[in-house]
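G., before I forget:
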Amino acid sequence: MNKLKLNHTSLSFLPLLVCIPLGYQLINNIHFGGFKLFQEFLISAFNPKIDNEIIITAIKRLNETILIGFFSWLVSIIFGAIFGIISSNIFYKIFNIPNFFNHIIRFCLTIIRSIHEVVWGIILMQIYGINFSIGIIAICIPYIAVNSKVFAEQLETIDYKSFESINQINAPKFSSLLTLIWNPIINTFKNFGLYRLECAIRSTVILGLFGIGGIGTSIFLSFQTLNFRELWTYLWSLAILIILSGLIFKKIKFNTTNKILSIFFIAVFFITILFSFLYFLYFIFNNNFENLNSVSSLFKSSSDLGLFDFLKLILETINLSLLSTGIAISLPPLVIGIFNNNSSKIFIKIFAFLLRLIPTPVILLTLLTFNNPSLSLAALTLGLHNAGITSKLLFTNLDNQDKRNYIAMKSLGISKKTSWLLGLFSQQAKSYLAYCAYRSDIIIRETAIVGIIGSVGLGWQLQESLSSFAWQEVTVVLIAYSSIAIVGELINGKIKNSLT
Amino acid sequence: MNNTLLELKNISYKYKNNLILNKVNLKINSGDKIALLGKSGSGKTTLISVLNGTIKPTDGEVKLFNKSFEELDRKQKSKITTIWQDLRLIEDLSAEQNVNCGLLAENNFYFAFKNLLNISSFKKAHKYMKLCRLHNSIYDKKIRKLSGGQKQRVAIARSLIQESNILLADEPFNNLDPKLITTIKNLMLESVDKNDTKKSAKTVFVALHRLDLLNDFDKVIGIRDGKIFFNIKRNKLKKIHLEKIY
């Protein structure tokens, strides 16, 4: 008998097997109690509330969102670049510093980025109370660590021979460093910077759902009061912001040969650093730290969390990550492959856009109108949201791909679906899986958000422990969370390396 | 008077259990014009890397100005410049920015910064680029957009602009047409003669393949399997010497 051989194409569809247990639980949990609400939610999408008052509120809230998003992006991209430099091998080679310090910095950054910005936000809100700067700080903390990883990875691509050559000129060490890193840093900023701004705006919306302000807070309040028409006004205005920013980002071209522009960017760089430090000092000395005292009881507070329950929560979180990743990987190629015609494509693209647009907690709360809370429902939510993101990438890559194979196969009389699978998708499968490996890192972190809303896994426990100021439990949950994310990152890193 | 600039004493270099250099002894005096001959893989590039301090030998001692590399300060180290066989230019920088990199050692951080922002003076860089017969239309072009010969000349200009006492070059005439070879060779060797009267004499150590270029050198060293087979004056070079190394 022939052995079953898995290639990248079949591996892209294999995770779809998660739909079997998932579907079974979802069907068992179905209820029709909130069907009318769900219907109303859908109808409201085509009939959002439009009057002066709500439009002014939406603009005001969007302004807040843009402000929080922009400042957190600016600070995180600049400090991300700085930490990227000091966690890159080239820095240690030039200054002859033992690599041991590099490992320590990288380890700290890994821990920091393993915790989602929502978790940072909730913890900070619990300690300092709700204010505008908490949103910026909560986004900045993990974003600096994420950005630093990207910058450091780019700096690792510096040709070692260029380093030797500059080193042999015996220039001052800072001059050598600057000359070698300048272009990788600028290129990373060009290719990655604006994408992170979009991410920062999305994170601001999510944090808004937890009360930090901006359009997210309005979305959540409208949902809580079941005012779906108002909710859709906010969602559509957010959609307009995201589409507009996408169009603007496409038009922006960074011309590094323009001297005035370069000097302007450098001025922004230093002013941001200076301002961040000053603001940090101001924040430290001017906050009343209402609940900070409760943190000092960290080692005094006792934990009611039993070992068995705790292990169960860890397993639930891992399960949630795996199921969501399965959906996010397999659903886009399956749907695009089956509905492979122009009109369906437009519909899929709109649906994928909505999945990206609507924050995961709102998707989850909507699905709760006809399904009982369960791990499967949380996984479906997270999977669908991320499938919206992976499908965008897949569409872009497929659109840019050479279609000669596909046309040749169709001309041989092979069906459209098979030609698409073998002539188009098979060539994208490897890079698509590599991106999905990176995406699954994010999914693991995002389990915290759906966990909090959907009463699943460690996210739920974290919310419970924070509400009761049980800091010892919070610490234990965070360590567990961080460990899962770090192990996940290591495994995904290995998968990604084997695919690229 | 002892005018030895660089000295290798019993140098050996091992890489992954392969002996690349085997007990090499060598003295390079001020003003020497040395050609290093040897077939591919004989250890020429490794010898040059040991001479400029890029790689540390497994055994033996390297002395520059009678001091080990560890004892030298940055300024003393910068008195050696190298033209690498694989050029080692920074692909994303322009030709003139790359040539200006040769001036990093004698300038401060602000100069490096201005160079990257394209706001530093390129006067000196242009002078050396012109000497290397580089047309001004390529001055601001990125390295990756240049031809092999143009890249080669940018690398040579970057080394020459350093105006160092010792010029090490690893097959610097690759990718160049015969007319350019003569120009570049004269440029590298003339600088020795011109400066001779001014301050300390400049020294040239060039790894070569082409025997027709030996005429302008005064010493020839032959290397094979990491061992120096001969170290003689150029006018004493005979066919038998070459047979030993090729």
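The two ends of chain A are 32 Å apart (CA to CA). Chain A touches chain B at residues 159, 161-162, 164-172, 174-176, 178-180, 182-184, 187, 257, 259, 262-263, 266 (CB under 8 Å).

More on Monday.
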